[in-house]
Structure formats: C-alpha cells, structure tokens
Design a protein that fits this description.
The chain has 6 helices and 19 strands. Strands 9, 10, 11, 12, 13, 14, 15, 16, 17, 18 and 19 form an 11-stranded mixed sheet that branches. The protein has an 8-stranded mixed sheet with strand order 2-3-4-1-5-8-7-6, with helices on one face. The structure holds fe (ii) ion. The site of fe (ii) ion has 5 residues, from β9 and β13.
C-alpha cells in the first residue's frame, strides 16, 4: 500500500550555486529584473513581482556551478511529516531543517529523491510585499513568479511514475509507441510544476519563470543584444507546441538555464485531458518548426546531494535505434508523415 504523499501546492523556489555572486547579481537583478528580498556576502534571495513568499530563487556563492535543491511548498504543517514518511518509505535519505536556516522559510524536510535530486518541502513562509503594481520598479523581463522546474532524467517513464505517486497530474507528453521522451506534470492549476527532459541525469535543465506578456520575453532579448550579451540567448524567442508557451531560454554567467515565458493554460478541472505529442511532430518543441539547438538538449546543471556533493550521472535509457530515429528527441526538423497529436484522458 503506497504511503499518502504530502499535499504539494506548487514549485516554490530553487537554490543555485554560482561562482561569482556579484556577476550573478548583475545578471539576475540588474538585467533580468528580479526583486531582492534579502542578501548577504554569500547569498541572494530573489523573487518575482507577483510573488508573495520570501523568494523564488536563492543564488549562493560556491566554487562550482550547481543546483543545490528544488523546493515545493506544501499545504499544511502536517504535510512535512507526510513528506518525511513518504521518502523514508522509498529508502531515500531525509533531513529536517529547522525554521530560519533558510531566510524567510519555516521548518523544512529535505530528501534525496529516487531520481537523484535534492527536494525540499516547507509550509511556513514569510510573506513579502507583492510588487505587482509597482510598475515604477519593473525592469528587464519583469519576472512575475517561478512557474516550474525542468529536470533531466535518465528514465522519463520512471520519473513520470514517481511524480504520479507524489500526486502530480499529467498535462502533456512527447512520445511514440516505444517510449516516453518527455512529460509535463502539475500540482498547481497550470501545465506544470515539474517537467522531464530525457538525458544523462540527474541534472537541472532549467528554471521557468512566468511573465505576463510576450513583449517582456522580447524585451529581455533586446536588452541582452544591446549589451552584446547575445550569446546568453540560447534558444528562441518562439512558441512551444507543448504548453503553448511563448518562450526564450537564457544562460546565466555560470551556464544555468532560465526560461521566461507566457501564455500557458488552466489545467484544474477533474479529468483534464492529456495532450500527447508525437516525437515526430516538428511543432512539439517549437510550434513554428524551428530546430532546437544541440546545447539545449546536451547541457544542464549538476545537482547536489544533501551533503552538497555533486550527484553522479546515469546514462539515458534509450536504444541506439531510438537515438538514430529521433535524434535524442530531435535536434533538427524531422519528417512529418504520421505526425499528429491526439487527446487522451487520464
Ligand atoms: Fe520550461
């Protein structure tokens, strides 16, 4: 009998290790436009303009770039006990973190999850001023809030099954008759809180931040171009097939990938249909059929265990035939015959 999972509200924040905090501050605060909730000599606590909780992103100074943890907010304090029991039953290492260890966050439970990621669950959080109508402060991409984590996993189906056991719903997939190549899963009522990209894992693929309007996605590209930082615009702007998001992917000074996007959709009704994209549909990754740059598939951030040590990588579960046929889920345009999407119900 599987244990009852904690009631997860949403993806709330991530902690990234950066090698030059001043340079990271210039990128995330001065250029991208994040609001600073708190800072010290060794860390920055940032949030979007709509955000109520203390932070969506911690940037911590360290010797090597890495993703230290992915944090989810849970609905009640009792969900911390459920989280601890859930992961203990899976054989995962867990740790209780007292309130205040992370500024603005109450007691937390951390776990090394079955996919190899350090995940955190917290209930109590200090509320910050919501800056939604402080138009005088807005700049850069005008990030509103953290929306999702995208993680690289060696076995997408195993990741799907584990997140299903954690109570997540499935919104969209990329698949064929043989394999599940990618999946988007949610707790809050949007397309996702967490998505999986197939590859050598565990690694963090990107953090997705929501903006309200497409011009904010375009504006950050113009700003980076004007500053001759065009190399930091990795992919896009474009329209995703999956999720319908209007997006751009940027690389920070340490190579961490951040996405700014707008216009996904509501998924909160019971029996919400799953949108399944054929891996041969050129529109799945970019609705206009633009090829995906190889770095977007190949490069991602190292993740750390509970002790702050890098996690070893597992090779992707993919046959040579699949790799040859779909090119690791498509570096380029692919033949269209047979490409179609269909709706299934959970
Ligand atoms: Fe994303």
């Amino acid at each position: 009998m599987p244990l009852r999972p904690p009631d997860i509200v949403r993806a709330a924040y991530a902690e990234l290790v950066v090698t030059d905090l001043a340079e990271a501050r210039r990128f995330y605060v001065d250029l991208l436009g994040f609001a600073v909730s708190a800072e010290s000599d060794t860390a920055l606590y940032l949030r979007g303009y709509d955000e109520l909780i203390h932070h969506n992103l911690i940037l911590r100074a360290g010797s090597r770039p890495a993703a230290a943890r992915l944090a989810y907010r849970v609905r009640t304090a009792a969900d911390l006990d459920l989280a601890e029991a859930f992961f203990a039953a899976l054989g995962s290492r867990t740790a209780r973190v007292p309130a205040g260890v992370t500024p603005g966050v109450g007691e937390a439970v951390r776990a090394e999850d079955p996919l190899g990621f350090t995940v955190e669950f917290f209930f109590e959080a200090d509320y910050a001023e919501r800056l939604q109508q402080r138009y005088d402060l807005r700049r850069g991409a005008e990030p509103a809030r953290l929306d999702h984590f995208n993680i690289v996993v060696s076995d997408v189906r195993a990741a799907y099954e584990y997140y299903t056991s954690l109570g997540f719903g499935l919104s969209e997939t990329i698949e064929d008759d043989q394999a599940l190549y990618a999946a988007w899963m949610f707790r809050k009522q949007t397309v996702h809180d967490t998505a999986f990209t197939g590859g050598e894992g565990p690694r963090l693929h990107h953090l997705g931040f929501f903006t309200h309007e497409s011009h904010q996605v375009l504006r950050i590209c113009d700003i980076l171009g004007a500053l001759h930082r065009e190399a930091q615009i990795e992919r896009g702007p474009g329209r995703h097939g999956v999720s319908n998001a209007f997006y751009v992917y940027l690389r920070d000074p340490d190579g961490h990938r951040v996405e700014f996007y707008t216009s996904d959709y509501y998924t909160g009704d019971p029996g919400h249909p799953v949108l399944r994209w054929s891996v041969r549909d050129p529109r799945r990754r970019d609705f206009w059929g633009h090829p995906v740059v190889p770095s977007w598939y190949n490069e991602a951030s190292t993740v750390l265990d509970l002790d702050g040590q890098p996690r070893p990588l597992l090779a992707r579960e993919q046959t040579t035939e699949q790799a040859a046929e779909v090119g690791a889920d498509g570096f380029t345009r692919l033949p269209v015959p047979g490409a179609m999407i269909r709706f299934d119900h959970n």
